Amino acid sequence: MNNVLGYRCVLCGAEYTPDAFAVAYVCPNHPDDTGILDVRYDYEAIGPQFARDELHDSPWHSMWRYLPLLPIGHPEYIPPLEVGWTPLYHAARLGRVLGLNELYIKDDGRNPTASFKDRASAVAVVKAQELGYNVITTASSGNAAAALAGLAASAGLSTVIFVPASAPEAKVAQLLIYGATVVLVEGSYDQAFDLCLAASKEFDWYCRNTAYNPFMSEGKKTVSFEICEQLGWEAPDKIFVAVGDGCIIGGVHKGLRDLQALGWIDRMPEIIGVQAEGSDVLATAWERGTEQLEPIVARTIADSISVGVPRDAVKALRAVTQTGGRYVRVSDDEILEAMRVLARGSGVFAEPAGAASFAGVQRARREGWIREDQRVVVIVTGNGLKDIKSAMVATGAPYRVAPDLNVLRALLARIGSTDA
Questions:
Q1: CA distances from 204 to 132, 155, 192, 201, 390 (A)
Q2: Partner of 300 for a Cys bridge, out of 87, 278, 351, 368, CB 3.0 to 4.6 A?
Q3: What is the side-by-side strand order in the sheet with 37-41?
Q4: Cα–Cα distance measured from residue 78 to residue 82, given in angstroms and rounded to the nearest whole number
Q5: CA-to-CA distance for 248 and 246, rounded, in angstroms?
Q6: d(CA 261, CA 243)
Q7: Cα 120 from chain centroid?
Q8: Helix, strand or coil, per DSSP, at residue 157
């Protein structure tokens, strides 16, 4: 079932029909591939044929349970890996530490390749097959690449991946084990993005690039569907999202807009974008009340959100401004602390970018702009095993002892604990 009405440019508002493949990536009215498109749906047609109560009986325990709200014309191309329907934990013990009665952790590190980006890549794999492509390409700091490589491998498609040479080794290993052709780019993520875009045009590969392919937001929006369904269709007060390129936060907003258009939720949550201090282009633009960006050279341990030129800036900024939310900066030290506190307080192990959203909650509580009675959802976008080096920095080295009980007893006395 495909209920797509067409596409609308987020910059100029130009609209295109569903079969306008010539503009299936970006609006041609703008230079440098900046005319990002938004997929439009026929909500009047969807409403009578797809009721939220029907989801109780859905055979899908994945993102595909929302198929009528996705731009999919051929469900037979859906890859076999189960993507989405990740757990939403009520982190009561962690909430008590922060003075929050209703703190929820959406753990998207539980996806097949251990990150949120599987949602978008699953849609990319379907669209590539619908359009007759055998090769898919993307640029990524790691997670989107691994997601594409894994989902494509499950469907028998080939991938060419452009990754900054600085990407964590664990993420590169994922690409290689899935059989991707991996191109390590001696440069930044932004340079890898541009090279990938040029290559996709030169060699006619299907391009998954964030904020270039409009269908990626559609995959990412499914997290909002799940959050609201898992909360009994009572929307949270605030959703905290780590932000780099801006596509995830734009997708979160799109999903909430879909639900509101269908009348499935009665209010719009505030969306809070969390950026690392060394990668804060969108936070700066939001503070200045503009959609004009000032690019920077990004530097942060949170590689998944280390972006100097956010490609999905318009959607990312509007996600915050249109919901009454805000942007907040966190330092690398705050991110490392958040990794520890989140893991020890909830059992959820997040990579630095995944923990950045929780660091935003900690800062918000310190600054006093979350009330204790508000329902807060934190989206954790990636598993901590993606970046063991940062995890070790966050925790410090383990203790070493000789295989001798007396030595162990002395160690425990020194560190002041015999607790298990």
A1: 11, 19, 17, 5, 37
A2: 278
A3: 15-16, 4-9, 37-41
A4: 10
A5: 6
A6: 25
A7: 9
A8: coil
* Separation CA 233–CA 87 (nearest Å): 16
Percent of the chain with pLDDT over 70: 98
What distance in Å separates the CA atoms of residue 352 and residue 62, rounded to the nearest whole number? Answer: 25
Q: Considering only CA atoms, which of 296, 293, 280, 291 is closest in space to residue 314?
A: 291
Which run of H or E residues covers position 102?
strand 102-107
> Are 130 and 405 a contacting pair, CB within 8 Å?
no
Tokens of 385: 């095993």
Dihedral sign, Cα of residue 259, residue 229, residue 378, residue 101: positive
Q: Which tens digits make up the pLDDT trace of 126-159?
A: 999 999 999 999 998 778 889 999 999 999 999 9
Backbone φ/ψ region at 242: left (φ over 0), alpha (ψ -120 to 50), beta:
beta
Long-range contacts of range 153-158, CB-CB < 8 Å, 24 or more positions apart?
153/178, 153/179, 153/180, 154/79, 154/80, 154/81, 154/125, 155/77, 155/79, 155/80, 155/125, 155/129, 157/125, 157/128, 157/129, 157/133, 158/134
pLDDT (tens digit per residue) in 261-291:
999 999 999 999 999 999 999 999 999 999 9
* Coil vs helix vs strand at 236: coil
Residue with tokens 């690019």: 295
Location of structure tokens 């630095």: 352
Measured in Å, how far apart are the chain's first and last C-alpha atoms? 54
Instruction: Look up residue 332 and give its two tokens.
Output: 């690398």
Which residue, chain included where needed, has tokens 């691994």? 146
- Residue 111 confidence (pLDDT) above 50: yes
Distance CA 408, CA 399 (A): 10
Q: Using an 8 Å Cβ cutoff, are 223 and 251 in contact?
A: yes
d(CA 141, CA 305): 8
Helices (runs of H) and strands (runs of E) counted in the chain: 15, 13
